[in-house]
Amino acid sequence: METVDSEDDLRAYLEEIAPFIGWIIIYFNSLEDTIAACLREALLRDPIQDERLDVFLSDMLFAGKCKALMHSYGQMISSCDIKYTHDDLNELEKLLLECAKRRNEYAHADWIGMKQDVYVRVKSQSKKLGILHRYKKFEPAQMEADIQYIHAARDELEIFNGRIHDQLWGREK
């Protein structure tokens, strides 16, 4: 679809892409839950205490959870015999933050205010020179790639977490 000329065209387009948006949100939420699980393991190592940590995690946004986990991993790398480096950690953090960026474009897009040629406003910022808007054209192939990117990031986080704890506890040499 190259243009949206009517409310019917808009609705048809949104019905076509809604499943992609749904999967992006589902996989991103799963990624965020994985970050919380990794934090529980990094900070407590006691499943009985998980609900105590959830008191704090439930009020944290994705960026806060991500930052806390990266700092916890950073401390492990600095103070223990861990084979991962801070460069490895920086790459993981970039991956997770890119997932948040991609998810936010979908979750906060102005889908109903779509412009001609299927451009959607994905971000508005107030600057000294006024309000700046950023638009993006969403294509099903790119949406599918974003779904796979976020799904793969969760898998990569789980691998990283498993390896760092195996190294921490001497299960991996």
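Next protein, fold it too.
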Amino acid sequence: MKRYLITGATGYIGSMLVERLLNQENTEVTVIVREPQRLHSEIRNNVNIICADITDKEAILQIKGGYDYLIHCAAPTHSSYMVSQPVETAEAIVDGTRNMLELSVKCCVGSMVYLSSMEVYGNIDCTDGRRVAEQELGELDISNVRSSYPMAKRMAENFCHLYYHEYGVQVKIARLAQTFGRGVRPDDNRVFAQFAQAVRNRTDIVLHTQGTSMGNYCDIDDAVDGILFLLEKGQSAQTYNIVNESNTMTIREMAQLVADRIGKGEIKVTYDIPDDNRFGYAATTGLRLSGAKMKELGWAAKVGLEEMYERLLGN
């Protein structure tokens, strides 16, 4: 029997991970959530539930039991929240991750994966077409409140390395490209979901920026495969990009692809750019992620962007 402990099971990636694990034989899944009622019913009825806030160290360290695997997914995901509540954003990421590392020590977890983000890379210029590997980091504007998210993700990654070196925690870091596909919730308001909603409603896609920021994308089923692969095959205290390199393009290019291919040319791309960053979008980036390290480990993504949108829309 393999025993898994998952945080963030009410979120998109966490819920899809749990769904996959529940379809495996000889598997027991336990989730840590603040609001069990937000769990999908099929998850709520088939997992062990620990009701706790991951930032509450006392509550987390009361958890008992031996777990083979721990996957830490929980983190704020809405850009508007990161801007309106930057302190809470940073605390949730840093304190929550440290508490999971402490729990990994206490429960002698065999393997842990921490879900980081491609936003940790900051400002890196890839206009020459090069791909960025895991060891390279660019500048982050520490005076920008939106940096609460990527700065905290960097600190959380650092704690992973510290706990590996001091306590031997077998933790791997997964830097995920933006992930979507089947199972995206109807209330998701991220850019890719706005594009899909425009297709559903047969309305034009409205960009609130020039759309020059480079996007890196990965299908949700590919991402789940990659995370579970890292649990078994990844090297501890190592960082891995989980991305499909063929899905790298600017926001503008993705919008046009959706309008032309998914919307079958019946909608178009328009612009409505405010003077301020009221939507909380991340700073413009030219980042192009490299997937070479995961390929060397024996894993590669398979699903292209057009199919990701077809899956999202249920076509």
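About the second fold: DSSP finds eleven helices and twelve strands in the chain.
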